[in-house]
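Q: What structure does this chain adopt?
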Amino acid sequence: QVQLVESGGGLVQPGGSLRLSCVASGSIFRIYRMAWYRQAPGKQRELVAAISSGGWSTNYPNSVKGRFTISRDNTKNTVYLQMNSLKPEDTAVYYCNTDQVLWSWGQGTQVTVSS
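A:
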């Protein structure tokens, strides 16, 4: 069973930046397309970024395109999410998983964008 541990969240002012990390246990991480998701209070969880197994292909919804960048380091079993120009509507708990949600969810990391 793969375990996911997210970190890097925090409180940031609008326009600020954060870099999230997600470490996965197990070497099978490298064969999967990975994604970041977020869930705001009262809303469904949504995908905000995805990356191919080798890291050469990424995609984003329009809501974060141009502001968020997903990357990965398969030698460290880690996927990252660089978030710039943060907005209050980015406030949510952020999670990583495969893009097919194959593994159990981690605890997530809280991102709060507020002045």
